[in-house]
Amino acid sequence: MHPRTRTVLTSAGLALTLALAGCADTSNGDTVSAEQDPSTTPADEASPSATPPTATPAASSPDGRPARSRTPLPTIGPPTGPPRDPTDLRKKNLLAGRINRGGDGPCYGLITDDGRQYALHGPGMGNFGVGTVVRVTVGPADPAIDCGPGTAASIVKISTVG
Fold this sequence. Notes:
The chain is of the alpha+beta class. Helix content is 15%, strand content 22%. It contains 2 helices and 5 strands. It has helices spanning 3-22, 42-46, and strands at residues 94-101, 107-112, 117-121, 133-139, 151-160. The chain has a 5-stranded mixed barrel with strand order 1-2-3-5-4. The longest helix is centred in the N-terminal third of the chain and has 20 residues, at 3-22. The N and C termini lie far apart (103 Å).
């Protein structure tokens, strides 16, 4: 054998021996192969006796589809305070409140929970006594009809609540 070749083989053998010896973890009984060792240096990879790393196939489910990612899904944190605007979407033509001017119509008075007063007009809608809680679908007011104080509107549909 040529002396220079012998030195290269000896250096490669020494590097492999040191790499394998450094990979043994005796604290918990587990061993790590040279391919799994993250501390492998470029000199170790360049040696002729080092084996190239092998790609591990992606895990898949029994039906052949790729397995789900192990990355946790993002979550929404706790609120930082109450909302500034209403969070419930409601129709602008839908009102709910108590009748404050009732009877058999056609004019009714309605006060909503937020204190707004409406003057409603609806012939043939029924008899609603003062204090009755109702839900009303309203339409545009007839300018020729005056049903008293409040925002004027015509009744499209009215029903008692509760």
